[in-house]
């Protein structure tokens, strides 16, 4: 029996595979297939909704295990990859983005998703966030913002509002909070959106749009910590008497100043895509560089090219 030939994702070489003939349609994964352990989050935690919608996205967009990577740092929200039956890493606190960048740059054929908390991404990981955004590395970063450190049981986080009483600010937070949307826009992110876990359809729309963006896509998803910051987002939830306002229809997503202004609206602010522009990704730039270097050293083996570099450094 002849074996079909497929393209290797990493080079122009053709490899043979024992994959079934193209006529055999491969089904998308079901929720049952993609769900791993039962999540250990507290009942009612907003993170459940984000996970359920990630499963839905995988199901809808037919993302098979070998085509996605789910990466996180440390925190309640960062337990995310444990609950997904696919490839991924529960990495070091604040270091999910550097790890995910390596995956993205070396495997451009994968969809790389990073999930994390406000502390993980804007406190210990704040520096990485800025650099991955400005470099426009192709990956989707979803921050499950609960305005608190949940896993370590209620410390002030960089997004906690002034006056929030926690174990680290018993009299109330005194430090001016980070606005994740402003931070992302100012850092140079090419896709910046905001949603809330209490509106599943909207979360799904934002995750799909983020995934389809060719570059660094950032989604701030409000996700209530029912244990340590109950009711934090009630003002954004119509079921609790709040207001869920979509980004005004006339908003120009390519206008950075307009996006920044929108991000500065008082809570509950707006929900939707604030900013979206096309700028070459670091992935594309590196691919061009690699191709031109290969052309320059055509005929040489990889180790010979490496040897030349070391010789030059002498
Ligand atoms: C290097 C290091 N410093 C501190 C900690 C302790 N720590 C674990 S999670 C966390 C903050 C989690 O908050 P957040 O990222 O907002 O996630 P949440 O639990 O709220 O989802 C901290 C400070 C750690 N694990 N590693
Ligand atoms: S402590 Fe808060 S963030 Fe952590 S699982 Fe419980 S409700 Fe969710
Ligand atoms: Mg948090």
CATH homologous superfamily classification of the largest domain: Thiamin diphosphate (ThDP)-binding fold, Pyr/PP domains
Q: N- to C-terminal separation?
A: 54 Å
Figure out the total of helices. Answer: 10
**Largest sheet properties:** 8 strands, mixed
| Low-pLDDT residue intervals, each spanning 5 or more residues | 1-17
Annotation, overall tally of beta strands: 12
User: Which small compounds were modeled alongside the protein?
Assistant: thiamine diphosphate, iron/sulfur cluster, magnesium ion
Description:
The protein is an alpha/beta fold and 314 residues long. The chain folds into 2 domains: 27-277, Thiamin diphosphate (ThDP)-binding fold, Pyr/PP domains (Rossmann fold); 280-314, no CATH class. 32% of the residues lie in helices and 17% in strands. The chain has 10 helices and 12 strands. It has helices at 31-34, 47-60, 96-106, 118-124, 126-135, 180-187, 200-212, 256-263, 282-296, 302-312; strands at residues 5-7, 14-16, 68-72, 88-90, 111-117, 139-145, 148-149, 155-156, 191-196, 216-222, 245-246, 270-276. The strands form 3 sheets. An 8-stranded mixed beta sheet has the order 4-3-5-6-10-9-12-11, sandwiched between helices. A two-stranded antiparallel ribbon has the order 1-2. A two-stranded antiparallel ribbon has the order 7-8. Helix 4 packs across helix 5. Bound molecules: thiamine diphosphate, iron/sulfur cluster (SF4) and magnesium ion. The site of iron/sulfur cluster (SF4) has 12 residues, from loops.
């Amino acid at each position: 029996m002849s074996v079909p030939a497929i393209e290797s994702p990493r080079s122009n070489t053709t490899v043979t595979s024992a994959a079934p003939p193209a006529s055999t349609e491969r089904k998308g994964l079901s929720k049952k297939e993609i769900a791993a352990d039962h999540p250990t989050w507290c009942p009612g935690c907003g993170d459940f909704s984000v996970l359920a919608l990630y499963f839905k996205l995988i199901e809808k967009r037919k993302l098979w295990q070998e085509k996605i990577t789910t990466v996180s740092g440390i925190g309640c929200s960062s337990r995310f990859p444990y609950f997904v039956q696919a490839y991924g890493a529960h990495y070091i606190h604040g270091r999910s983005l550097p790890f995910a960048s390596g995956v993205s740059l070396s495997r451009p054929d994968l969809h790389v998703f990073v999930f994390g908390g406000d502390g993980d991404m804007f406190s210990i990981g704040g520096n990485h966030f800025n650099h991955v955004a400005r470099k426009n590395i192709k990956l989707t970063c979803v921050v499950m913002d609960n305005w608190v450190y949940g896993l370590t049981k209620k410390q002030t986080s960089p997004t906690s509002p002034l006056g929030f009483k926690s174990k680290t600010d018993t009299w109330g937070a005194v430090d001016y909070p980070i606005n994740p949307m402003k931070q992302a826009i100012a850092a140079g992110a090419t896709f910046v959106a905001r949603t809330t876990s209490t509106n599943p359809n909207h979360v799904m729309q934002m995750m799909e749009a983020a995934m389809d963006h060719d570059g660094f896509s950032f989604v701030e998803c409000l996700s209530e910590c029912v244990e340590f910051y109950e009711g934090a987002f009630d003002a954004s939830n119509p079921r609790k008497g709040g207001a869920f306002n979509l980004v005004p229809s006339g908003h120009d997503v390519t206008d950075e100043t307009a996006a920044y202004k929108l991000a500065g609206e008082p809570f509950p602010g707006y929900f939707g895509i604030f900013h979206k522009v096309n700028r070459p990704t670091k992935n594309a730039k590196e691919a061009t560089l690699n191709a031109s270097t290969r052309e320059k050293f055509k005929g040489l083996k990889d180790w010979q090219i490496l040897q030349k570099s070391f010789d030059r450094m002498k």
